[in-house]
Records
---
Amino acid sequence: MRALLQQSLAIAGKLLKTLTTAWSGLSKPEQRLLNELAAGRPVAALVLTGTTVDVGSWFKKGRVVGVWVGGEWTMFAAGQRPFVEKVSPRLLAASVYNHIIGKLVLAPAPEVRLRQLRMSPLDAVRALRWILN
């Protein structure tokens, strides 16, 4: 019993470290938008992607952040016109990481606007762990 408790605490510590590291990588507008989206619900996974979308800025696009909140996968980018897309996990049952192009491919998800997210293999494994379970 003690070993199980220690193992659970170690896993929780790793998860907290991962979330803390990713959280510190968010800009202030991204943190505000995430707080609005979470609305008090726990954030289980947070992945910073290399994908960008138009958020109404003249000079740069907004970085897409993937987050697991309240039982659904949410992608968002902060800006003048924030991008937010929430996807039910049942629509993502065939999602995979394509290591050749370096993107997480969300599938089948026919009505999802963003079907590919550029990210590292490690971040993709973390995202897929939450999406496919």
Note: The mean pLDDT is 84.
---
Amino acid sequence: MISEEALANSSNLISKLLDEKLAQECMGKAYDEIITLYHTEMSKFLKEIEVAPSSAKSVRFTKRPYWTEELSISWKQYYEAERVYLNTKADDPNLVNVRTKFRETHNSFTKLYKKNRRAHCWIGEM
């Protein structure tokens, strides 16, 4: 899929680099030539697409309708417990207590999350 022109240009660049024994100035110029060659070859085979503006991203990050203040508090507790658990050393005598607290907060957050989500789904179906 590589064109003959690209192969010839790349082999010329390689021979130039070998002849000039990799001088620093030559390396900078050669790098620029390689990038230019790469971009021209890519523009031949790939189509350019328009990317959505950054304002369109805000649509994706809408607040979930079932997310409540209670869930936010539970999430913060879960996040803090997870952070403490992950930063606890394996030989720490307190590890069992930290892991237990982490699992409890995880389970309570998960239960509350599922409960709110189910309640929202049932309301929406009626």
Note: The mean pLDDT is 81.
---
Amino acid sequence: MVYEQNWLHFRHVENERLWFTNIFALIVAGTFVFAAESGLRHELWPLFLILVIVSLLGLQITIRLSWTALSLSNHIQAIADELGISAIEGIPVRRNSQESGLLARIRRSAQFLFTVASAFMLFYLMMFGVVLGLLIYTIKLNTVSVA
């Protein structure tokens, strides 16, 4: 019963992250379409500023949900070990490894780089960079047109 509840909570956290990212992607896509249709003008800088803030918020939410999912996956694995059953593969379970040295650090870094959580974080960081670039560009449009 506890095992099943933890799995359900894990799935809920993953779905929550997906829905927030879907909504964020729709907002960004709509903003980009609006900016493309109206042309990049200086008056659009508040819109891009809002997107910068929303992308940072999305990154923070993704990090928090990723830590929650990681904690739940470790808890699920511990319950599975206690019950003598095997947890379903595919969830990122990190255990305290006895390995040390450069090879262990490289292995742990590679495990982090290729997780779903890191893909979400990279997406929000990329969107932050793109939107920040557009914000700077639209602000500079005013200084170029005024001079």
Note: The radius of gyration is 21 Å.
